[in-house]
UniProtKB/TrEMBL annotation:
HAMAP family: NDP_kinase. ATP binds at residues 29, 77, 105, 111, 122, 132. InterPro entries: NDK-like_dom, NDK-like_dom_sf, Nucleoside_diP_kinase, Nucleoside_diP_kinase_AS. This is Nucleoside diphosphate kinase. Keywords: ATP-binding, Kinase, Nucleotide-binding, Signal, Transferase. Pfam families: NDK. The active site is at 135 (pros-phosphohistidine intermediate).
Amino acid sequence: MVICTVLSLFSLFSKAMAANKERTFIMVKPDGVQRNLVGEIIKRFEAKGFKLVAMKFVLPTEDLLKKHYAEHIGRPFFAGLVKYMSSGPVVAMVWEGLNVVKTGRFMMGTTNPADSAPGTIRGDFCIQVGRNIIHGSDSVESAQKEIGLWFDSKELVAWQPATQAWIYED
């Protein structure tokens, strides 16, 4: 009986720890970089309790962006989006934590800044859709795809922050 209870608790703990390992792809777009908002965006994700596991400052190629935004191929805005996104450097990041995809999307605000609540990144810093400063994965599956496009597995750093016990329950 005791062994079953211990195994059940271990199973629950393992599931909770696995959930804490969910990852999302977050990118500060050229307008966010040009407006010096990179630090503010990183600050918000760190303050929330998420863990940064990869980051790079890069001038993306049109080929990479076409792969990244492939679901939008054929839409009227696609060519302009690729052109804009390749117009300057971006900051690509991978963040890890419990429900980080869903929470990250909430922290960013809606795609249209006019509909974003105050307190969200877009609600606080954006006016138009075409200059909404940040991209974030919309699902765990798209996060995995996007992370794979932008980062080699060797660039994802596994580490344990000292604050882990102050953010997550056992």
